[in-house]
Every structure is written in C-alpha cells, then in structure tokens.
Input
Amino acid sequence: MKEIKHFINGEFVGSSNGKTFENINPINGKQIATVHEGGMDEVNQAVSSARAALQSEWGSMDVNERVNLLYKVADGINARFDEFLEAECADTGKPYSLARHIDIPRGAANFKVFADTIKNEGTELFTMPTPDGTGAINYALRAPKGVIAVISPWNLPLLLMTWKVGPALACGNTVIVKPSEETPTTTALLGEVMNDAGIPKGVFNVVHGFGPDSAGAYLTQHADVDAITFTGETLTGTAIMQAAAVGVRDISLELGGKNPAVVFADCDMDKAIEGTTRSVFANCGQVCLGTERVFVERSIFDEFVERLKQSAEGLKVGVPEDKDSNMGPLVSKTHQEKVLSYYKNAAEEGATVVTGGGVPDMPEDLKGGAWVEPTIWTGLADDATVIREEIFGPCCHIRPFDTEEEAIQLANDTEYGLASSVWTENISRAHRVAAQIDSGIVWVNSWFLRDLRTPFGGMKGSGIGREGGVHSLEFYTELKNVCIKL
Output
C-alpha cells in the first residue's frame, strides 16, 4: 500500500503520533494509499523549518535567482506530467481529458506566471514639496510577509494549491501547505519536484491531516504563522478568520458561492447552452465558480430548458482514462451523501426534475464509487433549500424572469458573491448588468476564462481579499514606504 508522508525541511517524514488515515479512490471506493496525519509536533517542525529558511539563503536570495528556481519547479512538474496526472485523477476521479488540459498545465504555469509578475511589477514613487523648498521622494519596497499557511481544497488540488504557493514563494515567503485530506497526493509529490529544482530546505513544507483537532487547526492557530490563505467552504473560513484574529494576522479567504447565470432572450443560444453546460457540470459541479442558479428570460425559457436537458443527458459519466468520458464521480462517498440529500430535498420541496436526480447505473466494479447524475430542476420557490444553499454538485435550478431589473435582483438574492455569467448579444446591456451584479467576477458570453493578471476573489460571504497579478503581491508582501528628504 502506498504511503504518503509529510514533507518537512526537505525530507519526507512520518507522524510522531503514529496516526494515519485512508486515501480512497472515488471511482470505486477502494483505498489507494495510507496518509500520515500530522499533529502539533509536525506543525511545530514545519513552522520552525519555514522560519529558519527565511533567515538562510532563501531570505537573502535576489529576485532573479528566485525566479529561475521557480521556473525549474514549473519545468519539473511538466517533466513528470503523466505522474501528476495519474495522481490527481486517482485522488479526485476527474477525467484525464479535464486534468490534462486544466489542472496539471495550469498548476505548473502558476509558478512561471507569478515569477514573471514579481520580476516585472514595480512599486510606486512620489515626489513632494517641503517647506524648505528642497523636496522629498517617497518610494515603496516590498518585503516578504514571512511564514504563510496554505490551506488548499480538494476540487482542483494542484492548481489551487500552486495558485497560492507560486506567488508566496515568488515574493520570498516560506510556506506550510495543509492539503485537503481527500486529495493529498500531488501536494506531496511537489516536494520531490522542489528538491530536484534546488529550492532550499524549509521553504516548502507539507503537513497532512484534517481540520479541527488536527493539522489544520494547529497550523492556523500557530503564533509563528504570519498569514493564512484558504480556499474552501464558508464555515471553515469563519473558523480560520477567528484563529487569525489572535495576533492580528493577515488572511485571504476564497469561500463558497451560489453563482447565477443570467440568460437574456437576445443571447446566442448555442453559446449559452454550451457555456452553461460547462459551468454547471464541469468537474462534476465541484467548481467554486460553477453555476447552480440559472435565470432565463421567459420568452426563451422552454427552449433553453429543453436544450440544456439534452446537453446534460449527452454527458458521459465514466472513469478518468475513458477518452470519451467528460464527467467523473464526486470526490468522496461523504460528499455523494451530501449532494444526494439535496437531490432528495429538491423533490420533497416540489421541484420538477427535468433530468437526473439520482445515481447512475454503473458497472459492478464501480458501484462503490461516489457517482451522481447530472441534474436539472425547475419550479421551485425562491426560498427553497437548493436555491439558497451551496450544493457543490452537478446540478442547477432554472427559473424564468421577465425584466432586466428582476434578473439583477434575483442574481443578487444570495449571501454569496463569487462569480456570475451573463448571456446577451446587446453590448450596452452586458456592461449595464455586469456592473450591477454583486460578484467578484462577471463573465459575459463565456465562463472560466481566467487572465491570471486580473483580480480574483469574492464579495459578501464568498471571501475576503483578491489574488492574481499585482493583487497577489499585495497579500504576500508587506509594502513599506521610504521617505527621503532631499
């Protein structure tokens, strides 16, 4: 049985407490590895190693040398592309076709993107008059924030972990990563790549475990952690924010969403169906930016529902290596139970099940997997449970609207504000509606287009802070003003 250990100070080490847990393949429910669960000892060792690395060659390294090392990390991931691909798909069950084009290449690219950003992004400079007439100059310097705790999620394990680790290291920080207990493999594998690339010991550390009373809680509560970045559910983010308040430590939180799509009658129907199919069902609906609420102008409502139904029923649910498969299982049996509870709740609250609503009929050797059907509902009231709460599965509710003002009100009628999409061929309407929707990103006639230079983050209950481009530098560095009297 494969064994996954912590990566601390450049070495793979087991847990001193002897605790382990099972890593389960969601395709068939079988164990694929034994993972060491970190306790306070491992967190202390990781934080001490990270702190020491700041005082070593890493802390004095010039930016060009640091950039060159991060390029080697990216190249190291790409050199072992197939190994990362297999590990990611074994942990998550997602199709190779998806991970091959998104998870692994973008996971590697994050190191190069943010290496280039820190190398090329300047700071500010101002001249100012002084009473004696000689003047003064003010300029800004960036300094690393220090030891960063990275709590990463299970839906895009490599991509979303490197989205944080890439800029953190580019800015000269050191990191301790606590990956999701569901998907530990590629984060551990990255330790080998870090060593091969020549990243100094203690710069990149990994401690496996759970949240409460485990590695996650011990790490976020540790007094020598300078900042915490987290992607995950809002309830966990609230607990992390409370922990960060002790010591007034900085946080970046990308949390839950209940994202809307607004489809106007003047849309390009083919584009809207294709884009909404991806935004609802991609990665089995386990995308923080995914769509769970669809609002369609009444005159095209029936046509849209029928065409999205046909599109959903055209998806092939299957194993990762099947080149024709475009939807895998959910990440775990626990998450399957959660999603199926919402499917049941929707039916109990009076939903019309347009398609799906249960578990697909799978071959005998796959029946132990975490499979669910792509599902579409109509007919629910605006206060129904599946309209209000994030499900994080391959499902959506479609509701008609009559006016632009109503569509905006419905889109904003949520405690979340992460992402949204608007489908219209009227450019004035596109600008007008996008400006009024309360979400950190609004896609018009598209979904999941990401320029990594742009700000990314959520409004309301969807998080705090922005990352991407210079906005990542703002979180991962302390900006210092220097005033020179002339």
Notes: The chain has two domains: 2-255+462-485, 259-450. The longest helix spans residues 96-120. The mean pLDDT is 97.
